[in-house]
Design goal:
Largest sheet: 7 strands, mixed
Helix content: 25-40%
CATH class of the largest domain: Alpha Beta
Shape: globular
Bound molecules: NADP nicotinamide-adenine-dinucleotide phosphate
CATH topology of the largest domain: Quinone Oxidoreductase, Chain A, domain 1
CATH superfamily of the largest domain: Medium-chain alcohol dehydrogenases, catalytic domain
Length: about 450
């Protein structure tokens, strides 16, 4: 891959890049089908991604007509790489076997290994015969919505597509690698003022939060809405916080340390709850809710901003879901995209129906939503929340840290980029948002 790196760094033309041979194998972070049962009976927190994620060479797959080969300059750790590595809630080899039954090209995805990773920034190396909108040399970021757009169900809202999958999680050939195979309809322009690693951390989390709060498919936040954000300095929470601030809402941000509260203050957040200091115990034991603790959270929110939340941005799942459904105001909306602490939710339906609340399920974002979210990053209106950067060989350590909630914001990963700080082509915009780019940096 060195030849591609040299070409990209020397500003080679599209024709020059197109003539470089694609290597037969490439370096990638992957899980192994043979190991998918290795954690049977082990509690989630004791499953160690450092044992199940491998960094090594894998063969380069053929390119389908609607795909591109991408030289990956940088990528990021998402929580879904933790899920892949602990084979929860299910092993991802099942979804890939089902994908392989869909078409002649899809067969490639069913292999003894899976290259993981659902974010990337990089340079297009080759385009398939059916690709019209991108060419070799284009600098891009990748969103992870993998759909076959020849299927009628993929239109209107492609997240509703029958064959919708998350690239690098439910498909093979993901972004934690030096080379990636992506559909042309996953590409977006790289924000020019960002480094490769800053450009790589946004697409998955930023687009998810955009759909949950801003797009017409989520909670449709409006000016003045009070929004309770769990994990407000985590991957999706840190973008959600920016959307609420930008959109004229009133964020009430929950975090678990004073360091994280300090980051929120830098971002301009006024109402902050430190859940560790508060010591909420929403469950008395594994099966019994404590409604008194829900009330205590509700009172804490009212003490801070005088009102109940119009919207709750929910993703911790089992541990917080009952409380979220309780504290949201009459007629308000809980929007959820995940269940980090457990996916079997329980809540008191009396508070839900008597107070005419709404629950909205949300998942990633369609191409349009991802594009709109990327545009806001490109204009310097929403900012990457990258705290640290790891080289690809240390991805396994980064995944361990995310699994144990030892991080803030996003962790970037350098693939082909030899060092941090490269790839900026709009230094003027960068200078304008320098403070915002440092919010999360350790
Ligand atoms: P993250 O970076 O680990 O941040 C999550 C934050 O949630 C943590 O930093 C933590 O913040 C808070 N949290 C964790 N467990 C909690 C609990 N039991 N109670 C209260 N707060 C808790 O992860 P992320 O990238 O934001 O992703 C969050 C979840 O959303 C993951 O399950 C991920 O798989 C999912 N997700 C889904 C989609 C989708 O498209 N459906 C997209 C992105 C992410 P504090 O400790 O500071 O409170």
């Amino acid at each position: 891959m060195q030849q591609f790196l040299d070409a990209i760094q020397s500003g080679a033309s599209a024709a020059e890049i197109e003539h470089l041979p694609i290597p037969e194998e490439y370096r990638a972070v992957h899980v192994l089908k043979a190991e998918q049962d290795m954690w049977k009976g082990v509690p989630s927190k004791e499953k160690d991604p450092r044992q199940s994620l491998h960094v090594g060479m894998v063969p380069t797959p053929e390119l389908a007509p609607d795909e591109v080969y991408l030289a990956v300059m940088a990528s990021s750790i998402n929580f879904n790489t933790v899920w892949s590595s602990i084979f929860e809630p299910v092993s991802t080899f099942g979804p890939m076997a089902r994908l392989a039954r869909e078409s002649e090209w899809a067969v490639r995805h069913d292999r003894p290994y899976q290259v993981v990773g659902s974010d990337a920034s990089g340079v297009v190396l080759r385009v398939g015969t059916a690709v019209r909108t991108w060419k070799p040399g284009d600098r891009v970021t990748v969103h992870c919505n993998h759909v076959d757009d020849q299927d009628q169900s993929a239109h209107n809202d492609s997240m509703m597509a029958a064959n919708q999958r998350i690239w690098g999680y439910e498909t093979n050939f993901g972004g934690l690698a030096d080379l990636a195979v992506v559909k042309a309809n996953q590409l977006m322009p790289k924000p020019a003022h960002l480094t490769w690693e800053e450009a790589a951390v946004n697409a998955l989390c930023n687009s998810t939060s955009y759909r949950m709060l801003v797009g017409r498919n989520g909670a449709q936040m409006k000016q003045g809405d009070v929004v309770l954000i769990w994990g407000a300095t985590g991957g999706i929470g840190a973008y959600a916080t920016q959307y609420v601030l930008n959109g004229g809402g009133i964020p009430v941000c929950v975090v678990s340390s004073s360091d994280k509260a300090d980051i929120l203050r830098k971002m301009g957040v006024e109402h902050i709850i430190d859940r560790s200091a508060a010591g909420y115990q929403f469950w008395k034991d594994a099966h019994t809710h404590d409604e008194g603790e829900w009330r205590r959270l509700g009172k804490d929110i009212r003490d801070l901003c005088g009102e109940d939340p119009d919207i709750v941005f929910e993703h911790p799942g089992r541990s917080t879901f009952g409380a979220s459904m309780y504290v949201v105001k009459r007629g308000g909306t809980v929007v959820t995209c995940a269940a980090t602490s457990g996916f079997m939710m329980e809540f008191d339906n009396r508070h839900f129906w008597m107070r005419l609340k709404r629950l909205v399920g949300s998942h990633f974002a369609n191409y349009k939503e991802a594009w709109e979210a990327n545009r806001l990053i490109s204009k310097g209106m929403v900012h990457p929340v990258m705290s640290r950067v790891f080289p690809l060989v240390d991805t396994v350590e980064a995944a361990y840290e995310v699994h144990h909630n030892m991080h803030e914001g996003k962790i970037g990963v350098l693939a082909l980029a030899p060092e941090e700080g490269l790839g900026v082509t709009d230094p003027d915009l960068r200078a304008k948002v320098a403070d915002q780019l440092s919010w999360f940096r350790r």
